[in-house]
Amino acid sequence: MTTASERALVDTNVLIYAYFKDNAQSADSLRLLETAHDGEADLCVAPQNLAEFFAVATGRRISEPMTVDEAVSAVNEILSLPGMVLLMLPLDVVQRWSELATATCRAGTEIYDLQLAATMQGNGISRIYTYNEVDFRDLPGITVLTP
After folding, report:
1. What distance in Å separates the CA atoms of residue 83 and residue 36, rounded to the nearest whole number?
2. In the CATH scheme, what architecture does the domain 4-87+126-132 have?
């Protein structure tokens, strides 16, 4: 049986690359999600990842964005993967991210990465699949993996 510490969170950028196949990271990102589909991987996402996915997938940063219905369908597809777990937001998430912000002197939009790390910590998750290694590598107890 897999423990929570062996489970790995899938960062938003990996989800985007899996669904928008016009970049170099698409194949590896899709392959990672396929391991969750086959039940081979023990992966998770936070509500924040899904909200960020929706915002990016339907927003102006994508040349051909999804419709609202397509993005909602993609979110539901991600949640239906047998090897994918939706994390709960810990009750002490604000305390956790504020401590991380103080310890790392991060400010501005970096708070979103700290909140994600705080959600991971509150759920006993120590590993994250991401292409944004720099955002997580200096956070205590977080191991960065690349798909």
Report:
1. 4
2. 3-Layer(aba) Sandwich (3.40)
- pLDDT tens, residue by residue, 58-106: 999 888 999 999 999 999 999 999 999 999 999 999 999 999 999 999 9
Backbone angles phi, psi at 69, to 5 degrees: -60, -40
Cα–Cα dist 126/95, whole Å? 18
CA distance 93 to 96: 5
Q: 7-23 b/e with 16+ CB inside 10 Å = b? A: bbbbbbbbbbbbbbeee
Q: At what angle do helices 47-57 and 68-80 cross, to 10 degrees?
A: 150
